[in-house]
Amino acid sequence: MATFEQIKGFIFDLDGVIADTSVYHAQAWRQLAEKLGVTWTDDLADALKGVSRMDSLELILKAGGKEAAYTQAEKEVFATEKNTNYLNLLKGMDHSAILPGIAEFLTDLKANGYRLSLASASKNSPLVLEQLDLAQYFQARVDPTTLKKGKPDPEIFARGAEVLGLKPEECIGVEDAKAGVASINGAGETSVAIGDATILKAADIIFADTAQLTLANIKKAMA
Ligand code: G6P
Ligand code: MG
């Protein structure tokens, strides 16, 4: 692991780290899955975290043994339907969707001169950041439509450092998904995971929730 003093930037996942939007994604997928006759489970919900829209749909169809049941055109319609469900849920989102301690942490990072980028697989991430008035904290964002491979591939977090003009070892990546932690580790950055330690055990540092995400706690964990 890098030393705390080496760190110059933070690369953030969005859904489930900054905003409580993972529940909206899950709800929107569940609506579609049940319509297609696929049983929704907690394991399926976990497997979808951090995964792109089309890859999520493939995982859902596979879970229901329906991977060969639909044409590409039908799949596109399903993915659009999920996104419409999701955008409808987002309409009800206000500042209370900012996860505990995140506003304070972002303010603290800015005050201490750290550079911040966003490495979210979501095409809706600019909308979410704007709606929560958090866009001002981020110097850069990786556009997920330009990626060859999604999480767990290291590409998105490697790009998250590049867009800040930083080396991987100068960056901390923050994630709530197993696939995201794998991406951070593969990029050679320090991984901070938020959530269940049994699922996220590959991370360098694990906090149970975002309220624990402070510079002081990170410094202590890196010592
Ligand atoms: C994030 C979420 C996933 C979501 C993906 C794509 O990684 O954790 O649940 O499927 O973004 O989001 P989008 O808004 O582009 O469908
Ligand atoms: Mg996430």
Describe the structure.
- This is Beta-phosphoglucomutase.
- It comes from Agrilactobacillus yilanensis.
- Keywords: Isomerase.
- One of its GO terms (molecular function) is beta-phosphoglucomutase activity.
- Belongs to the HAD-like hydrolase superfamily. CbbY/CbbZ/Gph/YieH family.
- With 223 residues, the protein is an alpha/beta fold.
- The chain has two domains: 4-20 and 95-222, HAD superfamily/HAD-like (Rossmann fold, 3-Layer(aba) Sandwich); 22-90, Putative phosphatase, domain 2 (DNA polymerase, domain 1, Orthogonal Bundle), CATH 1.10.150.
- The protein is built from nine helices and six strands.
- It has helices spanning 22-35, 42-48, 53-63, 72-90, 102-111, 125-131, 155-162, 178-186, 215-222; strands at 9-12, 115-118, 140-141, 171-175, 190-194, 205-207.
- Strands 3-2-1-4-5-6 form a six-stranded parallel β-sheet, sandwiched between helices.
- The longest helix has 19 residues, at 72-90.
- The mean pLDDT is 97.
- Bound molecules: 6-O-phosphono-alpha-D-glucopyranose (G6P) and magnesium ion.
Distance between the termini: 10 Å
Q: How would you state the average pLDDT, rounded?
A: 97
The CATH class label of the largest domain is Alpha Beta
Q: Are any ligands bound, and if so which? A: 6-O-phosphono-alpha-D-glucopyranose, magnesium ion
Q: Are there runs of 5+ residues with pLDDT below 50, and where?
A: none
Give the C-alpha Rg: 17 Å
| Apparent shape | globular
Q: Please, how many domains?
A: 2
Classification by helices and strands = alpha/beta
SSE string, helices as H and strands as E: EHHHHHEHEHEHEEH
Oligomer: single chain
Q: In which range does the helix fraction lie?
A: 40-55%
| Number of beta strands | 6
- Largest sheet at a glance? 6 strands, parallel
CATH H-level superfamily of the largest domain: HAD superfamily/HAD-like
CATH topology of the largest domain: Rossmann fold
Count of individual helical segments: 9
Second-tier CATH architecture of the largest domain: 3-Layer(aba) Sandwich
% residues in beta strands: 5-15%
Family: Belongs to the HAD-like hydrolase superfamily. CbbY/CbbZ/Gph/YieH family.
Protein name: Beta-phosphoglucomutase
GO molecular function: beta-phosphoglucomutase activity
EC number: 5.4.2.6
